[in-house]
Amino acid sequence: MSQDYQRQKFHEEGLRRCGSGCTGDFSAYLPGPHMHSFRYTQGELFAENVSLQSLAEKHGTPLYVYSKATVTDHFTRLDAALSPLDHLICYAVKANSNLSILSTIAKLGGGFDIVSAGELYRVIKAGGDPRKCTFAGVGKTRDEIVYALEQGVYCINAESEAELRYINQVAGEIGKKAPVAVRVNPNVDAKTHAKITTGKSENKFGIEFENILEVYGRVAAEMPNLEIRGLQMHIGSQLTSVDPFVEAVKKVTPLVREVKEKHGIQFFSIGGGIGINYKQSLDSGDEAWWEENSEVHPLTVQAYAEAVVPHLAPLGLRILCEPGRFMVGNAGVLLTKVLYEKRGAAKTFKIVDAGMNDLIRPTLYEGWHLITPVKQPNTDEVEKVDVVGPICETGDFLAQNREIPLVKEGDYLAVLSAGAYGFTMASNYNTRPMPAEILVDGDKATVVRERQTLDDVLKGEHIA
Ligand SMILES: Cc1ncc(COP(=O)(O)O)c(C=O)c1O
Ligand SMILES: N[C@@H](CCCC[NH3+])C(=O)O
Questions:
Q1: Would you say 118 and 93 are in contact if contact means Cβ atoms under 8 Å apart?
Q2: Where does pyridoxal 5'-phosphate bind (predicted)?
Q3: Bridge partners of 351?
Q4: How far is 101 from 423, CA to CA, in rounded Å?
């Protein structure tokens, strides 16, 4: 099936189906042989058509495994939902920057939201087009600005007047005109975790709503090396209701109109932030279950688009959207092995070989990830445990006080919804090598990043 045909099919199907739990794993609706991305078949967990047990045995753990079909599905679904608008999806690279993920999105026609020269370098290596890249972030350095301008990014989204002045200076020095947008901080509560709320005035992001017009005025009057190209906002991550999006869009669109009238902008970027359902990340394979549980997470792509599109369409501008987590979150799992069991007076611990250095979300944001055995045990019994890693930190856990099926030493567990902000936030803490990453596409599993060796970890270090 050609990619164009497949995409077209998704447009039709996407619009029809995206009411039924769009932020979960939707590959059930993918035409062709990939029926469900992560599901049990005869008691064993599969990613598309590949057994996760076999991947864990072959490549070792901790191991990140991604489903290409899920990424494709999510991209296409959002693309379809936004189709009433002249739009561009700029995938937020920070969520998962593996070259194969970026290449998949580039081939679907996606652009990218980058936050460093390194991310732009990755996009280019993966075959992405810099002319579809927006460059976010509060602290861009001279080298990064020069690199972005030389590569011809679509827009640099500035977050302060000082930054605008600096971009103007650097652009002048290298004989370029820099395309810029200003990020507005609308002071809207995204009602998400405090650490990932970005659109309140106490957050470091963007310029206050009230000052935006004056800033654009000064850019036009005093910064000749800047070309005003758009306006951007991003109020936070893992939003599970459309209300804050609507509030922000309603508040900012009159401003967008004014900026458009006075400065002739091309685009308005509504940022990312579409939340995923961490509790629904495993496909039960049971349609009725999906229907029943779709209410658990009210934010579907359809609901999102239906709520924001009517406010955006009349602007007559190109609309950019910067999803990260939505695109890849439920497309990835982290596989880990149970090393030991420890039964203490207060708790039972399952000590696994993945730690907070591999997946920091549970301890950093109290992030809840579904944890399930790769091979289902022959019993329905569950036990309440803490799933903890080998790191020397009390906060090194993947789950606390969690009822999970009975697993024993040597068994593998899958930590679901680990495709976003999993590997990209991993570190070498405790001198632990970074895990390998696998991309599954139908029957095929490719190592898309090798596990680090200890020599890799020590590379560049010298004894004085
Ligand atoms: C500027 C910007 N755009 C997009 C995103 C992507 O957010 P999410 O992964 O929640 O879609 C982020 C991260 O929150 C961001 O900072
Ligand atoms: N890293 C966060 C999301 C932050 C988004 C970056 N702006 C998470 O894992 O949920």
A1: no
A2: 273, 322-325, 421
A3: 340, 388
A4: 12
CB neighbourhood size of 10 (10 A): 24
Q: Let me know if residue 341 belongs to a domain.
A: no
Ligand 2 pocket residues where CB is under 6 Å:
94, 196, 237-238, 361, 365, 421, 425
Q: Which domain holds residue 228?
A: 69-327
Residues 300, 21: contact at Cβ < 8 Å?
yes
Residue 420 lies in a domain: no
Residue 380 maps to a domain: no
How much is the pLDDT for 233?
Answer: 98
- Tens-digit pLDDT profile for residues 117-143: 999 999 999 999 999 999 999 999 999
**Residue 20: what pLDDT?**
28
Rounded to 5 degrees, φ, ψ at 270 are -95, 5
Q: Which residues of the chain have pLDDT under 70?
A: 1-36, 280-298
For position 246, which CATH number holds? Answer: 3.20.20.10
Backbone phi and psi for residue 350, each to the nearest 5 degrees, phi listed first: -100, 115
Rounded to the nearest 10 degrees, the angle between the axes of helix 212-222 and helix 243-263 is 30
158: nearest Cα among 142, 179, 177, 172: 179
392 is catalytic: yes
Indicate which residue of 22, 133, 155, 392 is catalytic.
392
CB 94 within 8 A of CB 122: no
Q: Is residue 395 part of a domain?
A: no
Residues in the ligand 1 pocket, defined by CB under 6 Å? 92, 95, 113, 136, 234, 237-238, 271-274, 322-326
- Can you tell me which atom of ligand 2 is nearest the CA of 361? 9
What is d(CA 143, CA 161) in angstroms, rounded to the nearest whole number?
Answer: 19
What pLDDT does 36 receive? 52
Residues 6+ apart with CB under 8 A from 306: none
Q: How many domains does the chain have?
A: 1
Instruction: Identify the pLDDT of residue 298.
Output: 54
pLDDT value, residue 297:
54
